[in-house]
């Protein structure tokens, strides 16, 4: 299961990096590459297909994605912008009646916290202040749980 999720994440990363590389010369003055320029990496149909291919219920699939993103970010194999984009798009693809799975929700909130400064103290970037410690805690908890 993790291998399949890692392969999907690798394909999404290639697409993400390709778009960012194309936009970088156009957006030198732009603080973030969010917005109308980037296409969607994940749609609800993708979740349906991945769930069918992996034989996982949607909640299990989302938790598997969240864990792989957290592990990749914690190991510095995946960057914040990519992880934040994927987890945000996964969240956006959820059916409004669905309840977010616990692990997915924790990872989503950890990346969401790194998107902005929470107060006037801007000495530490929000990714370093909020996201990295939360993701490290999630990863530690998972490693402990699975031992």
How is the secondary structure organized here?
Elements: H1 2-23, H2 44-54, H3 58-74, H4 80-93, H5 102-113, H6 126-146
Task: Note down, in words, how this protein is organized.
The protein is built from six helices and no strands. It has one domain (2-146). Helix 1 crosses helix 3, helix 3 (58-74) packs across helix 5 (102-113) and helix 3 (58-74) crosses helix 6. The protein starts with a helix and ends with a helix. It is globular. With 147 residues, the chain is an all-alpha fold.
Based on Cα principal axes, name the global outline: globular
How many helices? The count is: 6
The string of secondary-structure elements, in order, is HHHHHH
Unreliable spans: none
Specify the helix fraction band: 55-70%
Instruction: Note the main sheet.
Output: none
